[in-house]
Amino acid sequence: MKDTRRFIYPRLLFAALLLGWGCAPTAGSLSDASRAAIADTIRATVRDAYDLSKGDVVTRFMSVYPTQGRVVSTAGGRMTSTRDSLQMSINAFWDGVGQYMIDPTWTWQRMDVDVLTPATAVLTAQYTVPHWTDRGAPHVIGGTWTSVWQRQPEGWRIVNEHLTDLPRPVAERLEATMTRRDSSAVHQH
After folding, report:
1. I want to staple 66 with a disulfide (CB 3.0 to 4.6 A). Which of 47, 49, 76, 157 is the partner?
2. Alpha-carbon torsion 19, 24, 26, 31, what sign?
């Protein structure tokens, strides 16, 4: 009897999971209007959070993540899996680089949202942040960002993400299109 339980119970559990998976709502059960509304909501959430003109940057960046639970983030060859460790990484970026950017503008090139279910979506976006250094030199950072979003009680939030930096030669080509600024004017800014 014990051998039968060891053999049957795991298979019954696996079958139940498969049946449950098949019954879960899918994107196919969403209307085109619902899919578009979810995609528009996620795009608007991202644009608002990354609007550098609104101040309190770290808090705004953190607003796209859940307040509780696991958040997996990979960037710059490093991985974090908690909200606290992600916030430490964002603080380190802002304290070490971001706050020194002169007139930065977060610019979104392409932003694709794939709605997988009524409660899950994937955003893939390209972005650049053109700005000037304290010496008046043009500088660009940016990359590609893929993030998995879940509908949570507080709204759509990122539960997993991967950021790939813009290759330096590409950034340098963009910088070549920007006008150098007088460093004395930059320091007054």
Report:
1. 157
2. positive
Residue 41 C-alpha from the chain's centroid: 14
Query: What's the one-letter identity of residue 5?
Result: R
Question: Residue ranges per domain, the chain?
Answer: 25-188
Give the sign of the dihedral formed by CA 43, CA 77, CA 131, CA 138. Answer: negative
- What's the CATH class of domain 25-188? alpha beta
CA within 13 Å, CB half, 23: 6
- Tell me the C-alpha to C-alpha distance, in Å, between residue 35 and each of 3, 121, 132, 180: 48, 10, 38, 43
Measured CA to CA, the distance from residue 160 to residue 90 in angstroms comes to 15
What is the spatial distance between Cα 164 and Cα 107, in angstroms, rounded to a whole number? Answer: 16
What is the pLDDT, as a whole number, of residue 29? 84
